[in-house]
Design goal:
Shape: globular
CATH architecture of the largest domain: 3-Layer(aba) Sandwich
Radius of gyration: 19 Å
CATH superfamily of the largest domain: Periplasmic binding protein-like II
Largest sheet: 7 strands, mixed
CATH topology of the largest domain: D-Maltodextrin-Binding Protein, domain 2
Low-confidence stretches: 17-26
Order of helices and strands: HEHEHEHEEHEHHHEHEHEHEEEHHEHE
Number of domains: 2
Oligomer: single chain
Number of strands: 14
Strand content: 15-25%
Number of helices: 14
CATH class of the largest domain: Alpha Beta
């Protein structure tokens, strides 16, 4: 199966990028004595900001027990759609996975709420750490003895985005064969992990020299990083058409099938699944996330919030979230 990724948010996101730091509404005081368990399934790259949010949310609602399940976004969605897990919130590092994998049975709306960009993370002990930069990284990575890696493209958006970066880099740097030279079997077998944050331990132990990560993850873990040109880091709507020239095949929803993903700017999305057991708690948490306090937490963790957040269908949102979002046109 081939998936055509829409440009639904092109104009909306382009407008909102300039508004990323505009303050949102003040956080409302709690009006309901919520209690119970809130289950959040989310991308691994959201682990740190969501932990911070859970801490702050519990100061408002101390009787709510927040259980978080973190992993590659495709894996987290499949836990809901294929394994029967019940999540009250699903937050993905790629908003497009929600309509692609959850509509119409498990969800019928989503909200996009944050940006990110691809970088190459490393440490002081990484080989050639004093030489690597945005112009020569592709040459450094292929030197003898250098170990680099990425997350699993079939499970984690950071994995298939890495392969897209490599494809774009071949064109950007005018280096025929660059993608094939980086995307070799030994690399994929030996230093691929289910989600991008799993690579951090390998960097810190010295077992890996370089890992393709999100900027936010590198900052949260105090790693050094190479910032890539905007033309290839999947951060800017200005280069959306160029990003779309990159294509990666990943496993499809049915066994034995494949889905083709095309490059696009990195935008995070979330939804409340239709079978959520506590949509009331989920709505309260998303009010916090999309409000001023949540925006500050996202910004402090290197993931600029989209303010106001954007939804594909405002009429389907819980009523308390509608004033926090605008609808994509």
């Amino acid at each position: 199966m081939t998936r055509i990724r829409t440009k639904l948010f092109s104009s909306a996101i382009a407008l909102l990028v300039a508004l990323v730091l505009v303050p949102g509404c003040a956080q409302p005081a709690p009006t309901e004595p919520f209690e119970g368990t809130l289950a959040i399934y989310h991308a691994g790259s959201l682990a740190v900001p969501f932990e911070d949010m859970a801490t702050e949310f519990n100061k408002i609602y101390p009787n709510v027990n927040i259980e978080r399940d973190s992993g590659g976004s495709r894996t987290e969605i499949r836990k809901i759609t294929e394994l029967g897990k019940i999540a009250d919130i699903l937050a993905s590092a790629d908003y497009a996975l929600i309509p692609d994998m959850m509509y119409p049975e498990f969800a019928d709306w989503y909200i996009v709420f944050a940006h990110n960009k691809m970088v190459i993370a490393y440490t002081d002990t990484s080989k050639f750490a004093d030489e690597i930069n945005k112009d020569n990284w592709h040459e450094v990575l292929t030197r003898d003895g250098v170990v680099y890696g990425h997350s699993d493209p079939n499970q984690d958006p950071c994995g298939y985005r890495t392969l897209m970066v490599w494809q774009l880099a071949e064109d950007y740097y005018k280096k025929p064969g660059l993608y094939a030279g980086l995307d070799i079997d030994d690399i994929r077998k030996n230093v691929t992990r289910p989600k991008s944050v799993d690579l951090i331990a390998l960097l810190e132990s010295g077992d890996m020299d370089y890992a393709f990560e999100y900027l936010s993850v590198a900052k949260q873990h105090d790693l050094k990083f190479v910032e890539l040109p905007e033309e290839i880091d999947l951060s800017s709507v200005e280069f959306e058409d160029f990003y779309a020239t990159a294509e990666v095949e990943v496993t499809g929803e049915e066994p034995g099938t494949m889905t083709t993903l095309t490059g696009m700017p990195i935008v995070y999305g979330l939804t409340i699944p239709k079978n959520a057991s506590r949509p009331d708690l989920a709505t309260a948490f998303l009010e916090f996330l999309l409000g001023k306090d949540g925006q500050v937490i996202m910004e402090n963790n290197g993931q600029p919030p989209i303010v106001p957040a954007v939804t594909d269908d405002k009429s389907k949102l819980p009523s308390k979230l509608r004033d926090l979002c605008v609808e994509a046109k």
